[in-house]
Amino acid sequence: MNFIDLFSTAQAWIFEAMVQPFIYQFGLGEFTEQAFEGVEWFLIGVCELIVLYALLRPLEAWMPVHKITDSTARWNDFIYTALHRLGLFTLAIFFVLDPALDSLTGLFHLQGMNPFNLDNLWPGMVDHPVLVFLLYLVVLDFFDYWYHRAEHQFSWWWALHSLHHSQRNMNLWSDNRNHLLDDFLRDVYMGLIAIVIGVQPGQYALLVVVSRMIQSLQHANVRMHFGQVGEYLLVSPRYHRTHHAIGVGHESKGKGSIGGHNFAVLFPIWDVVFGTALFSKEFHMTGIRDQLASPEGSSRDYGQGFWSQQWLGFKRLLRMDKEKIKVRIR
Ligand SMILES: [Zn+2]
Ligand SMILES: [Zn+2]
Question: For labelling alongside 24, which of 43, 70, 131, 318 has CA 20 to 30 A away?
Answer without folding.
Answer: 43
